[in-house]
Amino acid sequence: MQATAYTYDPESRSGQVLLDDGTPVPFDAPAFDAGGLRLLRPGQRVRIETEGEGNGLRITLVTLQTL
């Protein structure tokens, strides 16, 4: 699934992405670390992997979107 980086805190390595419908979804340090990223800037397109749905939706991986 694709999303757009919305917020990112480098100290906690957590933040939020916006899904294409505008829904903000938070991610935590383990999801950020799983993608091997060092930094994330708001507005970057990212690929995310999730589990669950609705209010239980949880991001398990955040990485840069590549072609």
Would you give an account of this structure?
The protein is mostly beta strands. The chain has 1 helix and 5 strands; from the N terminus they run E-E-E-H-E-E. Strands 3-2-1-4-5 form a 5-stranded antiparallel sheet. Strand 4 (45-51) and strand 5 (58-64) form a beta hairpin. The chain is globular. The mean pLDDT is 94.
Write the layout of secondary structure elements.
Layout: E1 2-9, E2 14-19, E3 24-27, H1 29-34, E4 45-51, E5 58-64
Antiparallel strand pairs: 1-2, 1-4, 2-3, 4-5
Which key terms come to mind for this protein?
1 helix; five-stranded antiparallel β-sheet; mainly beta; 67 residues; 5 strands
Order of helices and strands: EEEHEE
Distance between the termini: 13 Å
Major sheet summary line: 5 strands, antiparallel
The number of helical runs is 1
In which range does the helix fraction lie? under 10%
**Uncertain segments:** none
Supply the helix-strand structural class: mainly beta
Percent of residues in β-strands: over 45%
Shape summary: globular
CA radius of gyration = 11 Å
Average pLDDT number: 94
* Count of DSSP strands: 5
Strand order of the largest sheet: 3-2-1-4-5
